[in-house]
């Protein structure tokens, strides 16, 4: 009788286990994005995952130049949101970005940030060290150099400029007092309670454009397109606006 009881108990356990459906396997989507998008894109990702529970979104943040090199060297990625139109266009011409799934999505502005005292561009030659991103790999650094040249002070400040790997490092240098001033995107300055910001004449540098696109080599075409289209929804756009980005006409196409 004891043996029969054990057999019955085993059958009940097996029956209970068999009645449970295995957990659904999620599709993992990898997005490479400019470092200046960290907070805003993280919030959009969380919204998207709630509405699409079968998709898990992972982020790879970095300077646009380093992201470009990663993609060219074969690193996995399904979408790219770049902070440089020229870098993005180069990848597109080389066949890395889907021609029909790319758009100029966001806009931004430059500001000068200081931690100790108010300062304007004309004051930089008399200041101590300043910081900008590496112009060759960090779009914000290229725009900053362009603005400094426009104001005729690049030759005066180049020797005392600390070049950073991305725009967030520039902000950190200013916050910690390692430099007297830095040039970053307005959206980055908005994330700090430790710096003062001064607008920079937008005529002194080119249009700051963040293109977005699906990579040709994605293995998750359906899911990548779903996130790409989600970027056009009012829900996503409101998040980016909250963080100070402008929505460009291509990204302003209405999608629900």
Outline the structure in words.
This protein is α/β, with parallel strands linked by helices. The protein folds into two domains: 27-107 and 209-252, 3-Layer(aba) Sandwich (D-Maltodextrin-Binding Protein, domain 2), CATH 3.40.190; 110-199, Periplasmic binding protein-like II (D-Maltodextrin-Binding Protein, domain 2, 3-Layer(aba) Sandwich), CATH 3.40.190. It is built from ten helices and eleven strands. It has helices at 2-18, 38-51, 64-72, 85-93, 139-150, 154-157, 167-175, 186-189, 221-230, 234-242; strands at residues 27-34, 55-62, 79-81, 97-108, 110-114, 130-133, 161-164, 181-185, 196-199, 208-215, 246-247. The strands form two sheets. A six-stranded mixed β-sheet has the order 2-1-3-10-4-11. Helix 2 runs antiparallel to helix 10. The longest helix has 17 residues, at 2-18. It is elongated, with a radius of gyration of 24 Å. This is Molybdenum ABC transporter substrate-binding protein. GO terms for molecular function: metal ion binding; molybdate ion binding; tungstate binding. Residues 31-58 form a coiled coil. Belongs to the bacterial solute-binding protein ModA family. Residues 1-21 form the signal peptide.
Summarize the model shown.
With 256 residues, this protein is α/β, with parallel strands linked by helices. The protein contains ten helices and eleven strands. Helix 2 links the parallel strand 1 and strand 2.
Describe this protein with a few key phrases.
D-Maltodextrin-Binding Protein, domain 2, five-stranded mixed β-sheet, six-stranded mixed β-sheet, alpha/beta, 10 helices, elongated, 256 residues
